[in-house]
């Protein structure tokens, strides 16, 4: 039986934007969000770290000046991209969180589709797929593409799912769900962990097609060899107990408070 935190409805989204070296792509991302989903957003939660460039910081400052409380900036204390996301999950005030990037590799035009699906399926994860019909890769190296396909097929078999893209970190989930799970990864594998841990709990996952396009400014923080760490995360989670996936229930909180079966 599936045993995971559920919510009755979508109320508002916290859109998480981790930022390292983006300027124009960050600004473009925010403008598209304002155009498409302004009324559905509780906040845009920008996560920065010590290595975030001064140029990015100055774009963030301008966004704060123009948009006031809609922009929340958080200085991460945990390291790396996984650390940034984990802290953002805990700070989110919307009923749902949108996990995406600020480098335009997660096409912001699709956020409205993610939110529309989340309104229909508030307790499910809605995730973007580059492999689904209608999705695509542009500027992705051939070697990476082949490795990605093999990885997707192997892990969809291992997890017994028909999902086509488990590693694309572009998805929406309920805040309640992401705050209930015990996250472990600090680097990029956290992005994969955010799909497979909910899958193990029996959370339904819906895919929508999306087009991935290589960034045109700044560079990735994820060197190719680091992708091998995804295997460890995938195998470890597949064989861990469901109980270990959820945070321990706080003393004094009833089981129903933390998990509605
Ligand atoms: N705050 C913060 N943001 C980060 C960190 N690492 C990466 N980011 C941002 O997170 C987003 C995704 O990171 P990328 O390094 O582009 O990685 P990716 O596109 O998922 O990975 P590849 O496709 O393998 O290159 C980008 O907008 C980065 O600027 C970090 O340690 N802290
Ligand atoms: Mg990127």
CATH architecture: Alpha-Beta Complex
Query: CATH top level?
Result: Alpha Beta
- State the major sheet: 7 strands, mixed
- CATH topology group: Spore Coat Polysaccharide Biosynthesis Protein SpsA, Chain A
Computed CA radius of gyration, to the nearest angstrom: 17 Å
Helix content: 40-55%
Poorly predicted regions: 255-261
Percent of residues in beta strands?
15-25%
User: What is the general shape?
Assistant: globular
Number of domains: 1
**Averaged pLDDT:** 94
Which structural category do the helix and sheet elements fall into? alpha/beta
Q: How is the quaternary structure best described?
A: single chain
* Adjacency order of strands in the biggest sheet: 3-2-1-4-7-5-8
| Attached small molecules | guanosine-5'-triphosphate, magnesium ion
Determine the N-to-C terminus distance.
8 Å
CATH homologous superfamily placement: Spore Coat Polysaccharide Biosynthesis Protein SpsA, Chain A
Number of distinct beta strands: 9
Order of helices and strands: EHEHEHEHEEHEHHEEHHH
Total helices: the number is 10
Kindly describe this structure.
The chain is α/β, with parallel strands linked by helices and 261 residues long. The protein has one domain: Spore Coat Polysaccharide Biosynthesis Protein SpsA, Chain A. It is built from ten helices and nine strands. The chain has helices at residues 24-37, 54-67, 80-91, 111-120, 142-159, 175-180, 189-201, 229-238, 242-245, 255-258; strands at residues 13-18, 41-48, 71-75, 96-99, 125-129, 136-138, 171-174, 205-209, 211-213. Strands 3-2-1-4-7-5-8 form a seven-stranded mixed sheet, with helices on both faces. Strands 6-9 form a two-stranded parallel ribbon. Strand 2 (41-48), helix 2 (54-67) and strand 3 form a beta-alpha-beta unit. The chain is globular. The model is unreliable at 255-261 (pLDDT under 50). It binds guanosine-5'-triphosphate and magnesium ion. The site of magnesium ion has 5 residues, from loops.
């Amino acid at each position: 039986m599936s045993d995971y935190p559920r919510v009755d409805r979508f109320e508002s989204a916290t859109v998480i934007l981790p930022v390292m070296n983006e300027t124009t792509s960050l600004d473009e991302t925010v403008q598209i969000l304002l155009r498409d989903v302004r009324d559905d957003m509780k906040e845009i939660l920008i996560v920065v770290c010590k290595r975030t460039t001064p140029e990015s910081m100055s774009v963030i400052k301008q966004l704060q000046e123009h948009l006031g409380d809609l922009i929340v900036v958080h200085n991460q204390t945990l390291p790396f991209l996984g650390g940034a996301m984990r802290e953002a999950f805990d700070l989110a005030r919307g009923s749902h969180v949108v996990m995406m990037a600020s480098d335009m590799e997660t096409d912001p035009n699709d956020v409205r589709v993610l939110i529309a699906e989340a309104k229909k399926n508030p307790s499910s994860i809605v995730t973007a797929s580059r492999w689904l019909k209608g999705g695509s890769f542009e500027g992705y190296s051939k070697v990476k593409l082949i490795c990605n396909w093999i990885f997707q097929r192997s892990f969809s078999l291992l997890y017994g799912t028909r999902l086509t893209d488990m590693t694309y970190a572009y998805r929406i989930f309920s805040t309640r769900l992401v705050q209930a799970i015990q996250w472990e990864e600090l680097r990029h594998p956290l992005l994969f962990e955010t799909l497979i841990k909910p899958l193990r709990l029996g959370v339904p996952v819906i895919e929508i097609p999306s087009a991935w396009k290589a960034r045109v400014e700044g560079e990735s923080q994820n060197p190719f060899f680091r992708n091998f760490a995804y295997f460890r995360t995938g195998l470890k989670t597949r064989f861990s107990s469901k109980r270990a996936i959820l945070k321990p229930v706080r003393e004094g909180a009833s089981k129903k408070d933390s998990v509605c079966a």
